[in-house]
Amino acid sequence: MISLEENEVKVMDWIDDHFVLSEIEIEDFPFFPHGKLIRDRNGESMVVFWCVIYGRVDYRLQEA
Question: Helix, strand, or coil here: 9?
Fold first, then answer.
């Protein structure tokens, strides 16, 4: 069984794999499990989180 801390690490690893960390801001977003709100330099944002249904990292993009 995977611990909650491991899921948070997987979320952060996913973010690290998909973004240049020095070019984004990351904030906790507690509305989703291990949720992280990401903002880029253009002010665009997305939420990355652990999906408990599918057991994987998932994300939602900012709606236009």
Answer: helix
C-alpha atoms less than 13 angstroms from C-alpha of 60 in its C-beta half-sphere = 13
The token pair that represents 17 in the structure block: 């794999």
- Is the whole model's pTM more than 0.85, yes or no? yes
Give the tens place of pLDDT for each residue, 10-50: 999 999 999 999 999 999 999 998 999 999 999 999 999 99
Helix (H, G, I), strand (E, B) or coil at 3: coil
Instruction: Give the three-state DSSP class for 13.
Output: helix
Beta-strand ranges (E) seen in the chain are: 24-28, 36-40, 45-51, 56-61
